[in-house]
Amino acid sequence: MLDDLSISGKDVCYVFYSLSSYSSPELNLEAFHWLEVAMRYTDKVVIITGAARGIGAGCARAFVDAGSKVVIADCRDDEGTKMISELNALRKGRSHFIKTDMTKMQEVENLIIVTAEQFGRIDCLINNAGWHPPHVPIDQFSIEDFRHLFELNVVSVFAACKWALPHLRKTKGNIINLASLVATIGQYYATTYVATKGAILSFTKALAIDEACHGVRVNSISPGNIWTPLWKEAVDSSDNPERTLLDGETAQPMGRMGTPEEAGRLALFIAAEATFTTGVDHLLTGGAELGYGRKVHEE
What we know:
- The chain has helices spanning 9-20, 25-39, 54-65, 77-88, 105-119, 143-171, 182-185, 191-211, 229-236, 241-250, 260-272, and strands spanning 45-49, 69-74, 94-99, 124-127, 174-178, 217-223, 281-284.
- The radius of gyration is 20 Å and the shape is globular.
- It folds into 2 domains: 1-39; 41-284, Rossmann fold, CATH 3.40.50.
- The chain is α/β, with parallel strands linked by helices and 299 residues long.
């Protein structure tokens, strides 16, 4: 039944050819470029962890829109099911949901096994699942808090890469790991989170070196402030929601937060177009890291 949802590259070319008779040369050139980008990932098999919402969902939309077969891995059953219904309604690529707790290694391994068995290949792994705990000083983090966060934010990435790589080597595919801007610049009262994302940056570079001989590229994306459900929760729970939202928006010279859709388009570009790029961290920050800023925090 899922096969009925796929549209071949030949069908897309026919639609483009038909429309080109009624548009300007400039529009045709731009449309052809993005058509070429999208078609380059048609029928590619992409696993995205934590894809039921936020940045993961933005990535899922971008790849399904490009004609890919997207496997959504998430621990939220209802949201995962809702997401694949939305994506499959697009009738472009297709999506499949595998409920996965990324802190349980058996479930992570099962995700890779089931995907490979069902689709016969894996072309791209996007390690997006993770969590940012509330901002508190190191005194208020327990050792177990840190261990649990490390399991989710780092060990799950290592495990997914380890088990996906035998398949990615066959397709000369690629891995995209979600890090964070704060892995580079630090963040107030976020020692555990920053440490996990710093580990992702270093792991990405090391793995890129190892896998280059197999034709597998490994890159990362470091988002800054992206308007996600996690950010909305932070705003809603704040003592001053308007101020919290304004602080988030004005942290960027562009004066706004990014969107999950922008993250998805960057991931698609890395996977489909950036074929001479590996071991590189891509900042998606709206320029938040630029210029001087107020550094002293009032208690």
